[in-house]
Amino acid sequence: MSVRISAMSVLPPVRRDRVIAQLPQCFRKEAAIHTKNDFNNKVKTACQEQRTGTVGRFKISKVIVVGDLAVGKTCLINRFCKDTFDKNYKATIGVDFEMERFEVLGVPFSLQLWDTAGQERFKCIASTYYRGAQVVIIVFDVNDIASLGHARQWLEDALKENDPTAVQLFLVGTKKDLSSPAQYSQIEQDALKLANEIQAEYWAVSSLTGENVREFFFRVASLAFETNVLAELEKSGSRQIGDVVRINSNSNNLYAASKKKQSNCCH
Ligand SMILES: Nc1nc2c(ncn2[C@@H]2O[C@H](COP(=O)(O)OP(=O)(O)OP(=O)(O)O)[C@@H](O)[C@H]2O)c(=O)[nH]1
Ligand SMILES: [Mg+2]
């Protein structure tokens, strides 16, 4: 049996465990980007009608992961993308990146995850990759209060290269497995306070056990997707995205055809 390879089939289908049909919930209602139970209605309708514009075709959201050295940025990304965990520390030199493909409400959507170096000597290389981020993830170690204290500085550096009003911000505490419930709840108070001040959504995870890792990235993908689709809908304004689909598919035919004629007349 011969197998035909077309341009369309070069890209493998989205993995079944990367399919998001429902909005994943926030970790703490006290520090969330929003606390709605479901995707925005306009977004849901646009997805159903395949009116998502460039989202789903070419759109890739850039995500940068920043924070002090050895807080666990690389382990967090590796746990999600490769389902692995390395207990030995290997400093990231400059940057690394991973692509993750999702399907959100039936629409393909990709995140480009940039893992940056926390070590001071590699910071200047890493910061040249900050530009164009839609999502900034600031990572700290829940067992190291100093790493939480440095979060503001990481944010400031990341926002120098980006439009602060367009960035979605997450504050993520790692290595939850190493802290006792009492220690954890103490640092959580400080983290929630900071998250509110900088308007970030707060999460706590463990890359060793995998606790909350998948939930966290699904939340990131979903919120980035929602924002992108809303921006597309806003951009299109009264001229609806996907008019072409409508012209071919339903009773708007007559109206669309007459509009087309009119515009041709103007040439
Ligand atoms: N117990 C435990 N250890 C962790 C966890 N995450 C990371 N580590 C350990 O912490 C160390 C640093 O992890 P990395 O992910 O390399 O840290 P990083 O933030 O990428 O460091 P830089 O690349 O230098 O900025 C490694 O020894 C990891 O095994 C976790 O969730 N639990
Ligand atoms: Mg690293």
From TrEMBL:
The answer to whether keyword Oxidoreductase applies is no
Annotated GO CC locations:
centriole; cilium; Golgi apparatus; phagocytic vesicle membrane
Molecular function per GO: G protein activity; GTP binding; metal ion binding
Decide whether keyword Cell inner membrane is in the record: no
User: Localized where?
Assistant: Cell projection, Cilium; Cytoplasm, Cytoskeleton, Microtubule organizing center, Centrosome, Centriole; Cytoplasmic vesicle, Phagosome membrane; Golgi apparatus
Q: Which cofactor does it need?
A: Mg(2+)
What does the record say about its membrane topology? Lipid-anchor
Please report a single Pfam family linked to this protein: Ras
GO BP annotation list: cell projection organization; protein transport
Keywords (alphabetical) are: Acetylation, Cell projection, Cilium biogenesis/degradation, Cytoplasm, Cytoplasmic vesicle, Cytoskeleton, Golgi apparatus, GTP-binding, Hydrolase, Lipoprotein, Magnesium, Membrane, Metal-binding, Nucleotide-binding, Phosphoprotein, Prenylation, Protein transport, Transport
Cite the EC number: 3.6.5.2
- Cross-referenced InterPro entries, in alphabetical order? P-loop_NTPase (IPR027417), Rab (IPR050227), Small_GTP-bd (IPR005225), Small_GTPase (IPR001806)
Catalysed reactions, semicolon-separated? GTP + H2O = GDP + phosphate + H(+)
Name of the top EC class for this enzyme = hydrolase
Q: Which family does it belong to?
A: Belongs to the small GTPase superfamily. Rab family.
Subunit structure as annotated in this protein's UniProt entry: Interacts with RILP. The GTP-bound form interacts with REP15.
NCBIfam families for the chain: small_GTP
Protein name per its UniProtKB record: Ras-related protein Rab-34
